[in-house]
Amino acid sequence: MASKSLFIVAIDFGTSYSGYCFSLATQTDQIRQVYWGQEHGLNTLKTPTCILFNEKREFQKFGYDAVMKYNSLPSSEAHRWYYFHHFKMKLYNQKITSHMKLDADNGKRLPALTVFSESLRYMKDHALNTIQEASYQAVYDTDDVTWVVTVPAIWDASARQFMRLAAKEAGLIGDMLSEKLIIALEPEAASIWCKQLPQEGFVAEGGHRQKFEESPGTQYVVVDCGGGTIDITAHEIQKNQSLKELHKASGGGWGGSTVDENFKEFLKEIFHEGVWDEYAQNHPTECQQMMYNFGLQKCSSSKDDLYLHCYHNLTKVAERKHKDISRFFKDVEGAEWCDGSIMITYEKMKSFFAYSIRQTIDALLEILSKPEMTTVQYILLVGGFASSIILREEIYETFREQYHILCPLEAQAAIVKGAVLFGHNQQIVASRISALTYGVAVCETFDIAVHDTQKKRVSKADNYEYCTDLFKKLVGIGDLVAVDEVASYSFTPVEPDQTSVAFGFYCTEKKAAKYKST
Ligand SMILES: Nc1ncnc2c1ncn2[C@@H]1O[C@H](COP(=O)(O)OP(=O)(O)OP(=O)(O)O)[C@@H](O)[C@H]1O
Ligand SMILES: *[C@@H]1O[C@H](CO)[C@@H](O)[C@H](O)[C@H]1NC(C)=O
Ligand SMILES: *[C@@H]1O[C@H](CO)[C@@H](O)[C@H](O)[C@H]1NC(C)=O
Ligand SMILES: [Mg+2]
């Protein structure tokens, strides 16, 4: 039983960054956070979701350590090792199998399950060490811990199942059905964190306001602006402080890393004639470092032009094509060659954000126009990407007349801290809106007026004519379903001598379906 655990550990396994927080199972008011990167002169709440395996496919490093180690490898070594980053997005909107493979930075492949489970194993071991140091108490038995792993709310069931499998491989749980692992939804976790924050917990906002959870009826939208996905959910505070979902989870794969992608495309455009591709191919670690530097610069809150150091080897590859490297910049708008650096204008920088911001605003406009959303008062921005001034300003411009827009001080940590609270009490979310229509395949007495003759079957015992493969709806898309809600149905076998029945469960995005589809 989950209740016997000593500790609750929540892991936010992000597309760009990962981290964890924990607390005693008996105490919700003291959540311990862990800081990363001190050995490298950094101090952050999450560490890059990057993992490095050696040529024998053995796990070597995770996080900043993996980034630094990989960047220090000579190119000849780097070509033989396996370096993975941004792999969480491989579970979004794709067909997932337990045997699928992932491409490393250099194109070499490893099973996805290995990459995910070794990452989770690293986080698990790190967490158990931290707990031991903090409490002078060894966690002998993994049963002492309830693990919460967060996933985007817009992930489908197969991706969630894959994370559970990876957690089992990593030794977080002993069997797939264990209650010691809770899969939490990222925007939901953030909502749980935000609802109990005092007003001082948010970036400056005028006027007095109670904690959300102390004002039943408050309705708000939470936007988790991550590196990979933008994940949106809407909640109403109930009288007992629990949450009722107002709208099914929505969003898409347009997180902060689309900004990096756009920047990379821009570099490709500048260093045309295959220069960038050749560079990326032959100097993967240097290229990776350049992207890492850009990632830091895009977080700047100043509206100044940005200067990015151009690495020696990129200059070398470029100069082989044109002796004067500034020629690459002649027909390019928004960038200039500046004495060994690439200068990018603030306007150009903003344009890298445009796609993500447009998609997010459109999704919000669509959701907020729904009839059940007309009384929403707040928009909460969470996740690391919500720290972006460019993103925040645009959202503010679009929505400030109708909504209060809030951002918790620790926008990136809101997810993992809320996940700890969710681990303490999963009943906090009292009801959810079904994202799909679910049903079961059944047979019914055949009726020529409504049924397809191809679906007609005749029972062998008494020539009973029935229609097979019919879809019987159990839950409809958009239906409100309470947590632990039970519904009862009775089914009887078709054949009188039948001794077993196999139930096939199906889901669809449609409101209803006549037949199960194959
Ligand atoms: N001040 C900032 N300005 C712009 N972007 C930022 C800023 N701070 C963080 N980011 C971006 O936010 C993203 C990381 O946010 P976060 O840690 O919430 O994502 P994640 O959890 O790794 O991703 P996901 O939730 O999609 O799996 C990165 O793309 C990072 O570059
Ligand atoms: C350029 O690339 C070569 C070969 O990959 C590498 O050995 C060298 O360190 C790089 N030069 C610089 C200045 O980084
Ligand atoms: C809180 O109230 C809602 C409905 O108002 C109910 O469904 C839920 O079970 C309650 N939760 C708790 C923990 O009492
Ligand atoms: Mg996240």
TrEMBL record:
PANTHER family: ALPHA KINASE/ELONGATION FACTOR 2 KINASE (PTHR14187), HEAT SHOCK 70 KDA PROTEIN 12A (PTHR14187:SF5). This is Heat shock 70 kDa protein 12A-like. It comes from the Eukaryota. GO terms for molecular function: ATP binding; ATP-dependent protein folding chaperone. Belongs to the heat shock protein 70 family. Keywords: ATP-binding, Nucleotide-binding. The keyword Amino-acid biosynthesis does not apply. SUPFAM superfamilies: Actin-like ATPase domain. CDD domains: ASKHA_NBD_HSP70_HSPA12. Pfam families: HSP70. The keyword Nucleotide-binding applies. It comes from Pelodiscus sinensis.
